[in-house]
Design a protein that fits this description.
The protein is of the alpha/beta class and 205 residues long. Helix content is 33%, strand content 33%. The strands form three sheets. Strands 1, 4, 5, 6, 7, 8, 9 and 10 form an eight-stranded mixed β-sheet that branches. A two-stranded antiparallel sheet has the order 2-3.
């Protein structure tokens, strides 16, 4: 498994906005979207491209177009990253993975999984908070069972425990994250983290 931690001043700025407990949902959504542009750029660095001829106003030359990409947003926090992915990636197709976590064990309880065709696609799994790794590992497993083979997870914050689980259960998957944090509290929240991403995105705290 490969882990890439973003190292860019603007990404650090937007992550700090997300961490700040005083940030209200509207600004929080905007910072999540902006931070996700950096995650998307890094996650697509090795995206295969196909050559295609193009006519400039002056002459013919060789251009490029990107290969097939599918994004799978893990509900509901993954929705906070989706706008940037749709904005940047040409012809991206989107699937959704619905999972709730058991508050005592933090293990995932599946309630929905609907991907588009994943054959020969680069698959980006949008799971902002990689805490125990239960939800992400489940979503990756479902994507693989549906035909995905080239998978990158986009995360905002990860805990070492979650990273270790993905490394153990899906060593072929790449993770791109804005920060690798210290640990988890007794309720499986990441520390220092940013709290409950879904609640903060949608104002449900
Ligand atoms: N999910 C969240 O939204 N926040 C955490 O810290 C862990 C899981």
């Amino acid at each position: 498994m490969s882990l890439t931690v973003l190292d860019h001043p603007l990404a650090k700025h937007y992550l700090t906005v997300l961490r700040d407990k005083g940030t209200m949902p509207e600004e929080f959504r905007s910072a999540a979207r902006r931070l996700c542009y950096f995650l998307t750029l890094e996650a697509t660095r090795d995206l295969p491209v196909n050559e295609r001829p193009v006519e400039t106003p002056l002459e013919a030359t060789t251009g490029f177009e990107t290969s097939k990409v599918v994004a799978i947003a893990v509900l509901r926090a993954g929705l906070g990253l989706l706008d940037a992915v749709i904005d940047l990636i040409p012809y991206v197709k989107v699937g959704f993975a619905g999972v709730q976590r058991n508050e005592e064990t933090a293990e995932p309880i599946e309630y929905y999984f609907k991907p588009p065709d994943l054959e020969r696609a680069t698959v980006l799994v949008l799971e902002p908070m990689l805490a125990t790794g239960g939800s992400l590992s489940w979503a990756i497993g479902k994507a693989k069972a549906s035909g995905a083979s080239r998978i990158t997870a986009l995360c905002v914050v990860a805990a070492p425990k979650g990273v270790a689980r993905i490394e153990r259960e899906h060593p072929d998957v790449r993770i791109v994250v804005a920060a690798l944090d210290r640990d988890l509290n007794d309720h499986f929240y990441i520390r220092p983290g940013l709290g409950d991403m879904g609640d903060r995105l949608f104002g449900t705290t």
